[in-house]
UniProtKB/TrEMBL annotation:
Pfam families, alphabetized: NAD_kinase, NAD_kinase_C
Residues binding NAD(+): 45-46, 121-122, 147, 149, 184, 228
Organism: Granulicatella adiacens ATCC 49175
Protein name: NAD kinase
Key words, A-Z: ATP-binding, Cytoplasm, Kinase, NAD, NADP, Nucleotide-binding, Transferase
PANTHER family named in the record: NAD KINASE
Length: 275
């Protein structure tokens, strides 16, 4: 098995990566950061996002395993003190996997050039120095004229991030949908929006045509781009998916409960009990 390592610069991360390097030197695994079978990310969800974009062109060939060196994240099933257990799972690997949908983003610039991106969590378009004016099309038909701070289009796994903070629904990743949420929309006689998060089916195509001329920023997950030359952005559910090695994969709703509710439940008297 060819193993790639991708981590941050914390001391805990360095300890974990040194342990894997030692095993590679002993012949247990082959260290290959260029064309790995499995990418082990060490750090947190941000580290895994970085690894996803780093290996963007090899998604059909690799699986990811996330080790968290802090508290448990949405994409990280293992803790830094569980490396021995993970190593045993790697040795017994049978190709187990679970996959999540991605967002396909095509950007057309005013000069006629196009750029293509994939998002694991979300894509956003916003204006940092005023109000964003943007036409919103669904399957080629004008749906609304947006006026406000910006728009967020999220994947199901991204629904627990920025989208949730904007009032969006938390969506299970088996639902291959994308969700658009508004950032501080303004409604008047000229600019009217639904003023509600919208969930789009797998075959829907969303097109954004901004009318603002400066101060626009587009973000794909944690990566930001100058948006001032954008003519339109087309978004849809990607035909590609990201795959994780499912040795011990935490169920999605368990992740949601752990992240936002915690290990507590109400007893019949309405008081909290620690589980």
């Amino acid at each position: 098995m060819k193993v790639g390592l991708y981590g941050n610069q914390s001391e805990k991360t360095k300890e974990v990566m040194n342990a894997f390097n030692h095993l590679c030197q002993q012949g247990e695994f082959t260290r290959d950061d260029e064309h790995p079978d499995i990418v082990i990310t060490v750090g947190g969800d941000g580290t895994l996002l970085g690894a996803f974009h780093h290996y963007r062109n090899q998604l059909d060939q690799i699986r990811f395993v996330g080790i968290h060196t802090g508290h448990l994240g949405f994409y990280t099933d293992w803790r830094n003190y569980e490396v021995d257990e993970l190593i045993e799972s790697l040795k017994k690997d049978k190709g187990e996997r679970v996959s999540y949908p991605l967002l396909d983003v095509t950007v057309k610039l005013k000069n006629g050039e196009t750029a293509h991106y994939s998002a694991l969590n979300e894509a956003t378009l916003r204006k940092v120095n005023g109000t964003l004016f943007c036409q919103v099309f669904i399957n080629g038909d004008l749906f609304e004229n947006f006026r406000g701070d910006g728009l967020c289009i999220a994947t199901p796994t991204g629904s627990t991030g920025l989208s949730k903070s904007l009032g969006g629904a938390v969506v299970h990743p088996r639902a291959e949908v994308m969700q658009m949420s508004e950032m501080a929309s303004i409604n008047n006689r000229v600019y009217r929006t639904l003023s509600s998060p919208m969930i789009f089916a797998k075959d829907n195509v969303l097109t954004l045509r901004p009318e603002s001329e400066e101060g626009m920023v587009m973000a794909i997950d944690h990566l930001t781009y100058d948006g001032n030359e954008i003519e339109e952005i087309q978004l849809k559910i990607s035909q590609e998916r990201i795959s994780f090695a499912a040795y011990r994969h935490t169920p999605f709703w368990d992740r949601v409960e752990d992240a936002f509710i915690g290990s507590r439940e109400l007893n019949c008297n309405g008081s909290e009990e620690v589980r």
